[in-house]
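Tokens for chain A. Residues wanted.
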């Protein structure tokens, strides 16, 4: 009994264990991380809205349906290399630091997206045109393999524990702002240039804009500092290595690189359950995300025969609805918890996917707008919560690597392939309700994954001490911890001196 009681005893917090967030630095971290997602999803919005046009330019010999499938196949190909990017950038971020890797991914994303605007068409160089498009998409996919996981890790490690949901939601706020900007720009170009002008030269304009956006994002990321959690972890590893060698401690970043934290073997042997939970939640979020953002515009125009402008405006309005509500959902997850939001969203997705697509299929403006709004509100349940939930699954020393690998495997297998699979299934079966059934399956998988998720709202990240907003809050937290430790020590002393006093009544001896 003594051994059990001693093992359960908790050490009181000291002032060194509690980190007070630097509010200006937190704002810079959130802004710089969100801007990277804005640029990434600007490209996705452009590509989704230009799917029909890109099919005509790069795959002109195919039928209209086959052109869409070919375009989305090129889109999906970028996701096949995302796990490779995660394998490279994730562990690297655990070794040399989050900030350096995020700067590198920004450069690669901006350059590959910018290059698409200079590509020759099929009419100019034949088969070389779609091949060059594929190369650009592969580079973009490789770089994004380290982008989202790194950005979520960076914000989570800077955010105070009580506001991690709200601050993390700004990352995906940037996601949908980027998509809205990209899709909105294509809509304006369609209205001003017309289909022929867009096909002749207007499609290049959105990709050219990615260059300046990338330079702004790179400048902001180069100004960032490393996260407090990574600094503490690197310093601890350096001091441990220095003590073991009996010499002076090495530089924290060099030591972090030498130790090789975040090794694949440890991720898949000691943290496999967290990996599976992460993959299930990512599947739920990204199948819904890519269904709405990447496939829905093409579904309404090619499958349902809606007017291009009408379809584009409906999806654009859905993205604006997500943007307006996403930080509210993030704040709600800080108060109610991550699990209730994910559970409610999963159940609602199963129940409402079919009604939403039935409304979209009705045609016109009003009913499809209601259907799109339902899908948008379902999407925001996951988008507003994911960035604060996923990093908390893994400890600091391998958080970036584990999250990169789990996230990108799930996105590659299920998320990014959603437009390809659904368009191919609709083409093969002739059933235009296939997207709704696909969403229902995702909802079931996400619901089951959430059942195994431990609540992390308001709690420190694994492997890190508490993060608070003010010094007064830190003092109160330390004082409460010491009081609790004192009471626990008192209870332990009483149990050791008078063990009979805590036995059940039936075991006592008169």
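Reply:
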């Amino acid at each position: 009994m003594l051994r059990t009681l001693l093992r359960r005893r908790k050490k009181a917090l000291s002032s060194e264990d509690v980190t007070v967030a630097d509010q200006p630095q937190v704002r810079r971290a959130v802004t710089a991380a969100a801007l990277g997602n804005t640029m990434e999803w600007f490209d996705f919005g452009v590509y989704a809205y230009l799917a029909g046009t890109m099919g005509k330019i790069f795959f002109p010999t195919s039928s209209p349906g086959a052109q869409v499938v070919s375009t989305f196949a090129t889109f999906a190909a970028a996701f096949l290399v995302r796990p490779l990017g995660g394998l490279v950038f994730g562990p690297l971020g655990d070794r040399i630091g989050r900030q350096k890797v995020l700067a590198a991914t920004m450069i690669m994303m901006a350059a590959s997206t910018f290059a698409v605007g200079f590509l020759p068409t099929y009419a100019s160089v034949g088969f070389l045109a779609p091949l060059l498009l594929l190369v650009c998409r592969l580079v973009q996919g490789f770089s994004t393999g380290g982008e989202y996981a790194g950005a979520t890790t960076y914000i989570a490690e800077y955010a105070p524990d009580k506001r991690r949901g709200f601050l993390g939601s700004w990352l995906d706020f940037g996601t949908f702002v980027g998509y809205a900007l990209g899709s909105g720009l294509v809509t304006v170009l369609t209205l001003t240039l017309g289909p022929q002008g867009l096909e002749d030269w207007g499609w290049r304009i959105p990709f050219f804009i990615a260059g300046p956006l990338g330079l702004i994002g790179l400048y902001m990321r180069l100004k960032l500092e490393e996260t407090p959690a990574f600094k503490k972890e690197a310093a601890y590893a350096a001091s441990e290595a220095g003590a073991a060698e009996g010499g002076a401690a090495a530089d924290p970043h060099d030591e972090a690189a030498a130790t090789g934290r975040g090794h694949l073997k440890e991720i898949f042997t000691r943290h496999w359950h967290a990996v599976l939970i992460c993959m299930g939640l990512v599947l739920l979020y990204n199948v819904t995300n890519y269904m709405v953002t990447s496939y829905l515009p093409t579904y309404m125009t090619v499958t349902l025969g809606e007017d291009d402008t009408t379809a584009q405006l409906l999806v654009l309005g859905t993205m604006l609805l997500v943007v307006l509500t996403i930080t509210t959902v993030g704040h709600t997850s800080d108060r109610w918890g991550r699990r209730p939001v994910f559970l409610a969203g999963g159940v609602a997705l199963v129940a409402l996917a079919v009604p939403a697509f039935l409304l979209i299929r009705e045609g016109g403006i009003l009913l499809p707008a209601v259907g799109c709004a339902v899908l948008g509100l379902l999407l925001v349940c996951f988008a507003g919560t994911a960035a604060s939930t996923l990093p908390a699954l893994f400890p600091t020393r391998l958080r970036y690597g584990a999250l990169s690998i789990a996230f990108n495997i799930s996105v590659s297998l299920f998320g990014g392939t959603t437009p390809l699979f659904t368009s191919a299934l609709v083409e093969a079966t002739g059933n235009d309700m296939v997207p709704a059934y696909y969403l229902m399956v995702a909802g079931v998988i996400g619901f089951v994954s959430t059942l195994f998720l431990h609540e992390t709202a308001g709690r420190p990240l694994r492997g890190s001490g508490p993060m608070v907003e003010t010094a007064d809050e830190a003092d109160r937290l330390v004082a409460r911890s010491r009081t609790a430790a004192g009471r626990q020590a008192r209870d332990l002393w009483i149990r050791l001196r008078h063990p009979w006093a805590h036995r059940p009544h039936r075991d006592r001896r008169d």
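The two ends are 22 Å apart (CA to CA). The first helix runs from residue 2 to 8.
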